């Protein structure tokens, strides 16, 4: 694109030189958007805001490093640049996959000279040029992100610089910028001044006249300048090159990521994946993957030049097709036996290996998990879907190349012959051709490499047996056929079943033939010609959808298809013919989309011809309304994708209309708009929906009736319960794990307000009861650029107005004080104080806070944010009981009836890369309560509901179960020592009330208050239109009948424009810590029962009985005695060595120590009323809620005393009456 601009700058006439900023000197890492500066390749300083490196994913790189911006207003500015500027060009590219606008405003000397054109997801880089600038220097350049929050990459800023002095020769430019070059590569020098001569020195040597390109064979530094008669010499320029020499694969693997490498190896495997080839090659020492469009064959010896990359842990060389050359052919190297002791390691990555006697134990997410004969755990991941293993079986050998995905090494078999069940097994049947297109009447030939074996086959889809047709010659194919065959020989094991699919070539292939009644096309990988359709939706300049003008009668086969043809030039209504290769293409999604998502059927077109400019569009498939088709409302999939049932399975329903024109006629919005997408409910089942009419996630129903609209408008304001006022129309597509209607270039809907309002807590505050809240405040910090003042105001207001200022608030997603800025800060003191100050400003109580700061970058969450759990508490209502605060790595325990740390972290070493559970003990009106705030690991790693793996594998669940089990174990430990302890467990558990993690957390010890909420109100979060519970408050069972509970729906149904403060709804519980049902005191307790401590072998004993006399002689082994009962007398010489804790269950409890001296007594509860014989107590302490108790102390003779004031003399005996 060329933008011709009329600029306000004065015209100047200067000699010109071209300068390029490549960003290759930008030293950034990670995925955080940060502020900073760097010196560019031309020694110009650049300052950026809200930028991040763009080299971490080749899908949005341009070349080398670039800088990515997301937020409007962020950008990059140069320091003053000497010389003038006459023209400017920049390269930009869309990052990630949303279709929102991506634009940069361009400024020279703070004046706007233009805006780059929009760039679209999935396309290559675009270059935008700004001419006729003619600005005298020095000048500054600025590039500022505008409009949406979708990411854009900036690279290669090139300008023609006008030298201020027209009497001076323009600077010398090099054909290759400083950096790495391949040995033998040549560099050229030039100047824009006519008739100028160029002189150079090499590595400080003699000055030489430049005449021709110079071959570089060693590290070189050139100093160059240009000279011309009548002009001053140009400024000297320096270009430095480091030579890349051909290396072994092992040497190449050790280079830094991003380095240019050159190496040679023998190809062992080639897999087509994601629009390019993964080429495995190896030499005598090591192996590596080459990612390229080149197509060598196994056995080819190839030379490769490319960039070393790290793809999810896998070392690969990214190389252009022309940089992969064939040097010869060799025998494919023999597979290496996996070492017995080490198993699969980094040293074997990329190499061909073999494992023996592999027991296959399980299958999930495309991976087979097994153990070889040496006990090494193996992951086998076939790329070819025809390669399958049987779980529970042991294979004699499995060969393949070694890949890696996020730290897990994988054996990738190349063909079925790499998997040997039994060497005595007949070799599997081969076919010629092995599938694909055939003409009607063609014959296929079957064979096996096992001499003397007989072949039996079927053509009706059934499994072959020795009773099936015996192969004696060719098998004639007259219709689309699947041939299954086995080979049999006496004395040997029958071969595995081989399967071959054939498609009879038709005179005209139509879209429904390609789509078929399946999620994958039988035409995948095959060339098709002149497939006709009308263009229904233009995605971008490279892709469009078309739909057949002649549909079939089968509603299960889609009539629409995606066509990829760069710069196609087509418009909606064009009648076209497309020829090319059928692909199953992953249009958009996360990095693991090829392993988890479903693809979109696409024609990768080599040619598209227009047959007519404008024809009538096909009728839309109407969803919703009285005449619309109904979406299944209960089942997403119930057959592991083995049957195609659009009338029953939601995943099949959407596939049956993939690529077709769709109109969503009526519907209720099921969740707020996010990322330009929203879900609507068009038809309802019999199940319960949310209070606003949205989908409610349930144990047996994940709501396939949610229809996702991709409106491509992040500024659309819509909330749960709003209604479609006008239809939405577009095409049914797929991306990010779900089917969705592309509406952005279709007909956008309008909405009517459904009237939903935020709902404050319904619990009536009671001063005698404890109010506890749980609130995920979504990456909250004191950094005003990351946490806006509006958000702080809303959260503070919600505490006061919606939650009625709870006594204790368990907070999750509190960040350190500078938020996502990654500079080692871990303290969150300013973050808490910012929130506390705002609560006070709005008239709320002045809360205190307690937390434990994590170690830097150890608790997951937003990079640099150091997310953690914490508490706010109202010191006018509750007190944090005495104790020493723990550190980030110390583990709290519950010992002798109290926390060893307060607050403390539960098993921090076990909570790897996730938030640690924080426990604290509080005192409320003399009653102790232990509160545990949690934020378990996210559901990232769970497979999508509408993905290729059915049922989805919940990869993140196991860790949550483990964490929940640890927290439940901590509660068990509390209750073993203090059975009636008041315990509250709350926070963002990142899972549902019916899930395995919540069952593990609840156990037999806790009650989940969420389960008592009406179903239509049972949700705290909305994900893709599914209202669901992620946040919970659980209480110890002794509190379940004394607790009121409410989910306060103020956030999850709404957008920020509606006043939303977080993406989670807060929860509120009001709990009576006093059991109002108390047993009637026995007016005549009778004679005390004797309990002799010599009968106990443990050093720590807890006594629950009332009306007892406890005797301890000198032989007693008990060292600590915890008393929960009432009317207890203590006697015996052994008490001189025993610590006694009084923690009674009942108010008005009395204790008598008038017998013998006692080492120590600790009063821990306000239920203690009378202590007799207090002078016999050597050490007396009052802790916790007992401090608020009105305890009366008497000596052994009945005189009331103050045992904390030591007085001389013996106590007085009372006079006889």
Automatic annotation (TrEMBL):
Stored CDD domains: YhcR_OBF_like
Pfam families listed in its UniProt record: CHB_HEX_C_1, Exo_endo_phos_3
Start and end residues of each GH29D-like beta-sandwich domain: 177-237, 433-497
Matches recorded under InterPro entries: Endo/exonu/phosph_ase_sf (IPR036691), Endo/exonuclease/phosphatase (IPR005135), GH29D-like_dom (IPR059177)
Domain Endonuclease/exonuclease/phosphatase residue range list: 912-1049
MF (Gene Ontology): catalytic activity
Protein name: Endonuclease
Source organism of this protein record: Jeotgalibacillus campisalis
